[in-house]
Amino acid sequence: MKIFVFSTKPYDKDYFRQENSAFNHDLTFIKTHLNDQTLPLVEGADAVCVFVNDTLDRPVIEHLAGAGVKHIALRCAGFNNVDMEAAREFGINVVNVPAYSPYSVAEHTVGMILSLNRKLHKAYARVREGNFSLDGLMGFDLHNKTAGIVGMGRIGQVTANILTGFGCKVLAYDPFPFQPGHDSIVPSDLDTLFRDSDIISLHCPLTPQTRHMINEQAISTMKDTVMIINTSRGGLIDTRAVINGLKNNKIGWLGLDVYEDESDMFFENLSQSIIQDDVFSRLLTFPNVLITGHQAFFTKEAMTSIARTTLQNLETLEKGDSCQNLLNEKR
Ligand code: NAD
């Protein structure tokens, strides 16, 4: 199959080439995002392979259909950037990689909690400058603290389990039934979770229902100096609301691996550019905010699994077999 891989980075090439030895697809790597500006590049493709910041809205999907593209292969779990109605209407298959390594994201989440709490990123810089003062580095024990997990899917469950290892009590919210799997993981409604958690970590998908679930109202119900972590999707948080929460000390720590307007910045080296996003720039000014650039998934195990599953998905579709990762029939 002729697969055009958009938003390609060198590490994508490495892992896709390595895994493609078992499939022999015809891969073309394209650095740019797929969006309405780059549509001429899809000519000749049977499938486009896309990532989190490619734009698969209705006009793009209509163009893909006209150009003979039959499949959209997401090399990620989330599919909030694809207009699924349009894909169904134009008969384009959409496949994703629902699970690759929940450990990658869960471990990064816990890494952010530890870094923010014990200020490891600040300590690293201080010691390198010969500053061994402990002023301002005070943290707290995770032991006996309450962590709220919003979304008890694959990643939420692994995160909850890791946190029980620290001696945390975990309040877990999911609108669908789930197995807590540990005595210290207690199912909760969302209001109680927001009210009683010292740390709140988001692990649900971005949907119209979950967009801006962390907003002024929700923040007002949380504990003073709550820690909020988002390694899920940026749109879950109303960024202006968390900035207000940080300014009035309601939010004590904020850890973000995702940002609602990340698409023009993340995954690029912009160190010689002027960042135009003033909201993002304001976030960077807070001493108690730690931001990483959508790297939670980025482990060797996850990259291997992502490449293999993506290529397998397309081989299954090419053969006309039923593909368990086909999203078209799922709601
Ligand atoms: P999953 O589908 O296994 O779990 C998502 C859970 O959220 C499900 O249990 C679902 O029932 C629940 N949910 C749905 N609506 C909800 C709501 N309104 N409130 C609370 N929970 C709700 O997905 P996953 O593999 O655990 O991934 C979770 C999210 O993490 C993905 O949606 C994706 O956006 C994000 N993610 C981020 C990275 C990264 O690198 N930062 C990597 C992979 C996934």
* Overall pLDDT: 97
- The CATH superfamily label of the largest domain reads NAD(P)-binding Rossmann-like Domain
CATH topology of the largest domain: Rossmann fold
Give every kind of bound small molecule, once each: nicotinamide-adenine-dinucleotide
Give the strand line-up of the largest sheet.
Answer: 8-7-6-9-10-11-12
Straight-line distance between termini? 27 Å
> How many discrete domains?
2
Enumerate the spans where pLDDT stays under 50 for 5 or more consecutive residues.
none
Please describe what this structure looks like.
- It is a single chain.
- With 331 residues, the chain is an alpha/beta fold.
- Helix 4 (102-118) crosses helix 6.
- It starts with a strand and ends in a 12-residue tail after the last helix.
- The protein has helices at residues 10-20, 58-66, 84-89, 102-118, 120-128, 154-165, 190-196, 216-220, 239-247, 278-284, 300-319; strands at 2-5, 26-29, 47-50, 71-74, 93-95, 146-150, 169-173, 185-187, 199-202, 226-230, 251-256, 289-291.
- The chain is globular and about 60 Å long.
- The chain has two domains: 2-100 and 299-319, Rossmann fold, CATH 3.40.50.720; 102-291, NAD(P)-binding Rossmann-like Domain (Rossmann fold), CATH 3.40.50.720.
- It binds nicotinamide-adenine-dinucleotide.
- Nicotinamide-adenine-dinucleotide is lined by residues 77-78, 102, 105, 150-156, 173-176, 203-205, 209-210, 231-233, 257-258, 294, 296-297.
